């Protein structure tokens, strides 16, 4: 099982970023996926069910972030709009496969003027 995040960058307040997480080594379509961030505590931001019909968002990002999944390329994305300095963190995608949590290496998002 492997998860590789990309898309982190330095962005100004009010800006947007799209993070992507490429999954491999497991049957992507069978598992819910999630995005977390650590700054420094780990926070669950968003999750999407295996079939994509159900999503969850933390209050801190609701209305600004959107999680989606692309089955054909086995990618889960996080569209982040109206970014704030407090969104600065390392962002990780997560899959719980057979009761074991798998994490990518993380991608740094910095929101600053």
Structural class: mainly beta
Rg for CA atoms: 13 Å
Mean pLDDT: 96
Count the helices. How many? 0
Biggest sheet descriptor: 7 strands, mixed
Give the termini separation.
Answer: 37 Å
Q: What is the overall silhouette?
A: globular
- Percentage of residues in helical conformation: under 10%
Instruction: Note the beta-strand portion.
Output: over 45%
Low-confidence stretches: none
**SSE sequence, one letter per element:** EEEEEEEEEEE
Please tally the β strands and state the result.
Answer: 11
Please provide a written account of the structure.
It is a single chain. This protein is mainly beta. The chain is built from no helices and eleven strands. Strands 2, 4, 5, 6, 9, 10 and 11 form a seven-stranded mixed sheet that branches. Strands 1-3-8-7 form a four-stranded antiparallel sheet, with no helix packed on it. A hairpin with a 3-residue loop joins strand 4 and strand 5. It starts with a strand and ends with a strand.
């Amino acid at each position: 099982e492997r998860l590789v995040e990309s898309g982190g960058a330095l962005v100004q307040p009010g800006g947007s970023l799209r993070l992507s997480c490429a999954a491999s080594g497991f049957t992507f379509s069978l598992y819910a996926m999630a995005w977390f961030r650590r700054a420094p505590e780990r926070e669950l931001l968003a999750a999407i069910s295996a079939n994509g019909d159900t999503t969850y968002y933390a209050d801190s990002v609701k209305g600004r972030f959107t999680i989606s999944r692309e089955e054909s390329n086995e990618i889960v994305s996080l569209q982040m709009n109206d970014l704030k300095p407090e969104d600065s963190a390392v962002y990780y995608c997560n899959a719980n496969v057979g009761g074991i949590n798998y994490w990518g290496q993380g991608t740094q998002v910095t929101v600053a003027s």
